[in-house]
Amino acid sequence: MKQEHPQPPYAQIVAAVEEIPGLEPLSEWLVKALDPLTRRRTLMDLLQGRWLGHALHPVLSDVPLGLWTSVPVLDLIGDDTGATMLVAVGCVAAGATAATGAADWSVTYGRDRRLALAHGLVNTAALALQVGSLAARLRGRRGRGRLLSVAGLATGAAAAYLGGDLVFDRALAVNHTAWLSGPAEWTDVADDTDVTEGVLSVVDVDDRKVLLTRVDGIVCALENTCSHAGGPLNEGSVEDGHVVCPWHGSRFRLRDGAVLGGPATFPQPHFEARKLDGRVQIRGRED
Ligand code: FES
After folding, report:
1. Taking the model in full, what pTM does it have?
2. Are residues 205 and 240 in the same domain?
3. Staple partner for 126: which of 65, 88, 155, 194, CB 3.0–4.6 Å?
4. CA distance 203 to 45
5. Domain CATH code at residue 259
């Protein structure tokens, strides 16, 4: 008899959240509304964390949550001024965190995009509760302010859970080439005449795909799976010594895999390449 394996409750909740009616049309509307901003590559590189070497959003998201977590402690010991200050600074930090989250969200699709939007909406509710708490505290309504702080913190924690699911379950904003290494030995991959300037070709090496091309006569070899979200680089284009990913337009220098333009924040693994007896051989990074 076939055994049923029901999903654990937390997985059922996440699955239900991403199917909430209205998330998809709201996503589409938001994509259009944000389009003038998401087209600004410099702004997106700043918000998505290319300068930092990985996503900026998870770094900033700890700040408001950390501040707001400290508020009930200060409330308990009766430090009203300190508590009000932390609520206020947390609200400012939440604004900056939301901007980085929106930038990351702008390059998501399907169920990931819906769940990420739900994560953002729950965080917005958390921020609204904290702003309400701040207003109540400034008017001297301490009991109400404390209550709203705790409610905002609980709501923020629920949003953080959804955010964690996006990263640890959906692998959003992680390096999609992190686990790839080798080949440790020089490996024959192609005839030298098959690697052409300005043309992207792909070869299979150890059950994975390697991108080959030639820049200024030199053979360049990169991991073909884009580090951002796994796009196939060989289906992209070559421009001025770099390859442009066909999925979200990240640009990697062919010579060494450096990220020249996001949303990717991790460099593309590159291989040493050499010519031997008319054949191209490559060798990858070690574990
Ligand atoms: S998969 Fe997103 S830029 Fe390549």
Report:
1. 0.86
2. yes
3. 155
4. 31
5. 2.102.10.10
